[in-house]
Prior knowledge:
This protein is an alpha/beta fold. About 35% of the residues lie in helices and about 25% in strands. Strands 8-9-10-7-11-12-13-14 form an eight-stranded mixed beta sheet. A six-stranded parallel beta sheet has the order 3-2-1-4-5-6, sandwiched between helices.
Amino acid sequence: xxxxxxxxxxxxxxxxxxxxxxxxxxxxxxxxxxxxxxxxxxxxxxxxxxxxxxxxxxxxxxxxxxxxxxxxxxxxxxxxxxxxxxxxxxxxxxxxxxxxxxxxxxxxxxxxxxxxxxxxxxxxxxxxxxxxxxxxxxxxxxxxxxxxxxxxxxxxxxxxxxxxxxxxxxxxxxxxxxxxxxxxxxxxxxxxxxxxxxxxxxxxxxxxxxxxxxxxxxxxxxxxxxxxxxxxxxxxxxxxxxxxxxxxxxxxxxxxxxxxxxxxxxxxxxxxxxxxxxxxxxxxxxxxxxxxxxxxxxxxxxxxxxxxxxxxxxxxxxxxxxxxxxxxxxxxxxxxxxxxxxxx
Length: 344
């Protein structure tokens, strides 16, 4: 079976990555696109040879009946796209991160998830990078022994890459259940109102205490380490290291390393090459889920909501200088509260 696929939001560069991956997606065909600006819509359609073009995604859903849609909208309209897709009978959505920005968005999407029929995954394609999958498998199969510490970071702020980092931690250590969350936040420049609405503190550090005794360390923003020395770009410094009783594995956007029972290995990889294959594999996993409800996508909406819940509790911990748990009530107006606390 060949699945009919579409993209909502093709004015930004990220949509090109989705389209480019279809050369590696044998079960899918990019058949329709939607974006509000006609010139951008036509330019993208011409580049990727897509004739069915819409300035209204609701019309595209109703007329085209796509099986799967990639959603590249700003965070504040994620929910309305999900609701429209669910109402139109779209089979699955792959939604760009971040899923939301603050507690009110999270609560509304959580309520939607309780009754929705459309299958939703979040576009954390790193989970499916070939090298990442190899290292994740080593950890899952016990090669490094019992996990003791998961250390992950990114130089972009929590709204841009915080859920990437949290998903990486969950991808390597899916059995980790957070018992408590303690965080520090600083810097208000990225909380200033702007077009992209990716509001977050400039720097965030989070420690997670898991119920089995392991720990997690997350750093996002200006306090995160550089992966490539001397490279000032903020988007190229994602990394994760998982330490166990028998060794460790390390992944970054450009290289990898392992030290297991006295044996050292490592090397480099090309991030763009890995990324297109990861994007394709992530989409193919959505087709598996469409065909079989038991083939739950690892980037499913419930998993993404858990990651975002941890992010929100980190904000609350940083604001109030105390440990938080997932059981405590979420604070409304978190972004405004952070803005007031970190301004100046």
